[in-house]
Write a structure and sequence with these properties.
three-stranded antiparallel beta sheet
Length: about 350
């Protein structure tokens, strides 16, 4: 007996493409202008990580102040790139806490502020699931009423990712959902995030500080620029805090800061050793061998190990270019001087 051939099509099998079918088309979302290309791009999520008590919140204040003043991360802020600033805090009161921080006092322009803790109208029992956490962000933004094209600062970010920061899939989907929320409102986000507790066994600690951010790697994979505020202990540099900036489409940037008596960040003065090193480095088109630098600086100015560390830091930060075997020069367009 001959059975009829059944042509069953699996629901996920590839179908012939129909250019006239509406389901195969989409309308790209209109993203805001780039606030600071290539370091902060419009409509993106950007993270600032650091250990507990490193000073991530005061660093937000520093960056907001610099942005409002027209120069941040050593770059000139493009005129008209953003329409305003708003800060959303999830773990501290603004009225009874952060508003009194010197880092946020006397800013050059108004700062739209909102604290989830200060808002007594929220019933947080409604936000137990991961999906509801993104809805929570939307409700907060409804209350803030930010102008389209604004820069949104979030301190900290974890609450909107769900209950398990170690769940790669859940955090990745949350980031994608948040991207859509930002695009719909024409916003760009810079948010703080924490690191895991330091391990007793230092051999099992991630050597790159950025990788110490707590949670799944999707936090780094599904955002744009990642920044890390390194403490003096982490870099073994007395009193110097280093902001490491890792953009997706440019070289890593490194900027040094010191804290004043009120805990606010100030640009660190140039290190005398760095000054003497840079005086020996030729401009783009010419280079100097490491051996010549050793002859000029070791041991009367610095040790050989210190020179090696400085050269590596400057190459990673983009202030120097390494060419050939152990030869160094300044880049064509000099990036900010270390410190």
């Amino acid at each position: 007996m001959t059975h009829p051939v059944l042509h069953n099509i699996h629901p996920f099998a590839k179908q012939p493409w129909d250019p006239d079918a509406g389901s195969h088309t989409y309308t790209p979302q209109i993203l805001p202008k780039d606030p600071l290309a290539p370091y902060i791009l419009g409509g993106t999520i950007n993270l600032l990580g650091g250990s507990h008590q490193a000073g991530k919140t005061p660093m937000l204040g520093r960056l907001i102040r610099d942005w409002m003043s027209g120069e941040v991360l050593g770059q000139q802020v493009p005129q008209g790139a953003i329409t305003g600033h708003g800060i959303l805090t999830t773990n501290r009161s603004w009225q009874h806490g952060m508003a009194h921080s010197p880092a946020f006092k006397d800013l050059p322009h108004p700062l739209n502020t909102y604290s989830l803790i200060d808002d007594g109208t929220f019933d947080l029992k409604d936000f137990r699931t991961r999906i509801a956490r993104v809805e929570l962000l939307e409700r907060c933004l409804d209350r803030m009423q930010l102008q389209r094209g604004s820069l949104l600062w979030v301190d900290p970010f974890a609450l909107f990712l769900g209950s398990n920061l170690l769940d790669f899939d859940a955090c990745a989907v949350s980031c994608l959902e948040i991207h859509k929320v930002l695009a719909a409102r024409n916003l760009t986000m810079i948010a703080t995030t924490a690191t895991a507790k330091p391990k007793a066994d230092q051999e099992n600690t991630y050597p790159r500080l950025l990788d110490r951010i707590y949670g799944t790697a999707s936090q780094l994979s599904f955002v744009d620029t990642c920044m890390y505020l390194a403490t003096p202990d982490e870099l073994q540099r007395a009193n110097i805090y280093t902001l490491q900036v890792y953009p997706q489409y440019a070289k890593m940037l490194s900027l040094d800061f010191v804290k004043d008596d009120q805990g606010c960040f100030l640009p660190a003065p140039p290190d005398a050793e760095f000054v003497q090193l840079f005086e020996l480095i030729p401009d783009s088109g010419n280079s100097i061998a490491k051996a010549a630098l050793i002859d000029a600086l070791v041991p009367k100015v610095m040790s050989r190990a210190t020179l090696t560390r400085m050269l590596r830091q400057c190459v990673e930060g983009g202030q120097l270019v390494k060419s050939g075997h152990g030869r160094y020069s300044k880049p064509p367009a000099s990036l900010p001087f270390p410190g």
